[in-house]
Give the backbone structure.
Amino acid sequence: MKEAAVLNESQTLVQVEDLTIKFPVRGNRQKRFITPVDKVSLEIKKGEVLALVGESGSGKTTIGRALVRLLNPSGGKIIVDGNAISEYKGKKLNEYRKVAQMIFQDPFGSLNPVKKIESHLTFPLKKHQGYKGEPLNQKISELLLKVGLTPVNEIRQKYPHELSGGQRQRLAIARALAVNPQFIVADEPTSMLDVSIRAGILQLLNELKRDLELSYLYITHDLASARYFGDRIMVLYGGKVMEIAESKELIKNPLNPYTRLLLSATPGSESQVNLKDMSNNPPDLSEGRQGCPFVPRCPLATEVCNETMPSLDEAKNGHLVACHHYEKEIF
Ligand SMILES: Nc1ncnc2c1ncn2[C@@H]1O[C@H](COP(=O)(O)OP(=O)(O)OP(=O)(O)O)[C@@H](O)[C@H]1O
Ligand SMILES: [Mg+2]
């Protein structure tokens, strides 16, 4: 019994408990807040990809930024490799940059246009890994090769604007790898790229996961890529977790009405139900809101849904859902 517990512990890399993030609402005399991430709990195992799916404004990037500590959580706990990193400050936070890295949607935004490609890797290798001289030189080439940026000697001398979008994203990945991380938050890493090169980037992330035993939080709008790359999928709506399950199980047997409608609205599905477009009426994120955020769009909603947010409960082995009525038919 004790051994099993120890094994379990060693397999979990990231553990998030009741993560809450608040932002002040500007332009109001009375100080008010929104809570775009509200008591979110999740777990990512070593070598696992957790895909985080949800529409625009659901809180995906905010969760990702908190997990790499680019922003401070307002409440809850983030434990990475046994350490409560949500409490980290100063030097410890700097050390944490070696453990967790983030890759952004727009690779160009994080590259310095006046620096050669090789210089983008020099800084993290020197600062976090202590490389210098010939070993530094070799390590730069090794990283570029690893992410498929060849011929290496030519690429090293180029500037970011001389690379294609896919190549820039590969450079951003190489830079994240330079610190030898265990955990990567990949925030829609392919959404700004041509469709034809998206698969190559996901394939690269997949190979790196296998070779380096990396864990990922993979943020996406797109259920198809979540299924391809994610071991498990977590569905978010209005800052709340709606459902979590193994990818195949979630796609085959979605339980939350939001997930069911999301899936039925994807091209090629049998039941072509359109999810009501609510882009002009986004979910209520105000602090202290009650009930389920999906109520205004949910065909199954009743009074209880307005009053109480359902807890995230295990409906089946490893399949968790937050819905008062997930057993009811929609169609
Ligand atoms: N620094 C901030 N200050 C105030 N509000 C913010 C801040 N960052 C995000 N928000 C708000 O928090 C909510 C969630 O934003 P977030 O960027 O996490 O969503 P997302 O799911 O990543 O959306 P997208 O798919 O468009 O990237 C939004 O309403 C957003 O406007
Ligand atoms: Mg985002």
Q: What stands out?
A: The longest strand covers residues 12-24.
